[in-house]
Amino acid sequence: MDHISPVLWQFLVNWMKNFPLFPPEASTIAPQMDALYFFILLVSVAGLAIVVLLVVSFSILYNKKRHPVAVQIEGSTLLEATWTIIPLGLFLIMFVWGSLLYFRIYTPPANAMNIYVVGKQWMWKVEHPGGQHEIDALHIPTGRPIQLTLISQDVFHSFSIPAFRVKREAIPGRYTTVWFEATQPGTYHLFCTQYCGTDHSHMTGEVYVMTPEDYEKWLAGSTSGMSLAQNGERLFASLSCNACHSGRPDARGPSLANVYGSKLRLADGTEATVDEAYLRQAILNPSDHITEGYVPIMPTYQGQISEDGVIDLVEYIKSLNSNYRVEQTLNTTGLLPESEGKATTASTPKPAAPAAKGTVTQ
Ligand code: HEC
Ligand SMILES: [Cu+2]
Questions:
Q1: Which of 75, 147, 257, 343 qualifies as a cystine partner to 179, CB 3.0-4.6 A?
Q2: pLDDT one digit per residue (tens) for the chain, 362 residues
Q3: In angstroms, what CA-CA distances link 246 with 84, 240, 348?
């Protein structure tokens, strides 16, 4: 580029760097999303070019001076078939390509590490399985599928990480999930992309992508010593859930050991697979699904447990599965519940998360 002056060249390079048209591609899905995006962009630009070219050339070729008397043409099957079949083919390519990507993004792999994200006006609260809490920040390792389980405590929010090309709604009363695998260590933006009130524009944060070693160090440095499951165990005792779910044969409620992931027969004859969403529903609205063979005596806990508390309880119930430890490859110790006697002594309620930015340990 010797015909461009060095100063101008420098200016252009800097300009491009500071006004990037695209965020960096920092996840495994990002290049694939961009490929589809550019394909659609290319088809659109090509379509625009063809239409403009035809409009301009026809208005020159067939204007009144050259063709004073209009010639009527009655249909052309070949022409009509061409302009139907080619766009149809192009749109079907977009559709199939887009659906394949969609299913990839919304179906997390079985070995994904699950991190909870609670949206509320106006912050993102992140909870790692080991109990690490952070506000408007998300620390994750590279090279490992991460699944986010999102929920909102108030209005609709939307969790978006442009550099990963993922975005997912955080909906009140329902868990949604999205997953990604980060490829490049670095710091990236995260946004709320759903207008959610006065301070919506401040509902932003940082994603810190770290090497697995640095991530382990971060986990160890920000731990409160209590995993989500352990917090849940305390809550389970302080809310007296164990009065009915003691696991003993004469208990009034079913044993919750190995219930996660199982199929429950319900009183109305249907079957339900117990996932996070089912557990949440079972705690907050027990009368919605009654387990076969039991009477609907469980009280509703709607309005009594915060979303954070529900997450702790859900993780605790998951931890009652014998294979849970194998699934949790994090270096969190003591995820399995200890004896029930110990659980009942520790009934201190969980303090509310402080509204500070950055890492919060509780
Ligand atoms: C008064 C007794 C009682 C209390 C207290 C109670 N439960 Fe239950 N729970 C039941 C009964 C009975 C069922 C089965 C019928 C149903 O589905 O409602 C049940 C069902 C459940 C289920 C669905 C899983 C299954 O196997 O049916 C979950 C999860 C659950 N309880 C969690 C909890 C949690 C967490 C607490 C405390 C916040 C709690 N329960 C408090 C009696 C109770
Ligand atoms: Cu928001």
A1: 147
A2: 456 678 888 888 787 777 777 788 889 998 999 899 999 999 999 999 999 999 999 999 888 888 888 888 888 899 999 999 999 999 999 999 999 999 888 888 888 888 999 999 999 999 988 888 899 999 999 999 999 999 999 899 999 999 999 999 999 988 998 999 999 899 999 999 999 989 999 999 999 999 999 998 888 888 777 888 888 888 888 888 888 888 777 778 888 888 887 888 888 888 888 888 888 988 888 888 888 888 788 888 888 888 888 998 988 988 887 655 444 433 343 333 433 333 333 333 434 433 334 443 33
A3: 66, 10, 20
- Atom 11 of ligand 1 has which residue's CA nearest to it? 253
Would the CB of 337 count as within 6 Å of ligand 1? Answer: no
Q: How far is the CA of 169 from the centre of ligand 2 (A)?
A: 10
Domain harbouring 145, CATH code: 2.60.40.420
Structure tokens at 56: 């301009």
- Ion ligand 2 neighbours, Cβ < 5 Å: 157, 192, 196, 203
DSSP 8-state symbol, 298: P
Residue 12, in any domain of the structure: no
Cis bond leading into 15, ω under 30°?
Answer: no
Q: Are residues 268 and 178 in the same domain?
A: yes
164 and 249 inside one domain = yes
Q: What is the pTM of this model?
A: 0.76
Is residue 313, in this structure, part of any structural domain at all? yes
Domain that holds residue 165: 112-362
Q: Does the beta carbon of 254 lie inside 6 Å of ligand 1?
A: yes
Give the Cα separation of 109 and 122 in Å (integer).
30
Domain count, the chain: 2
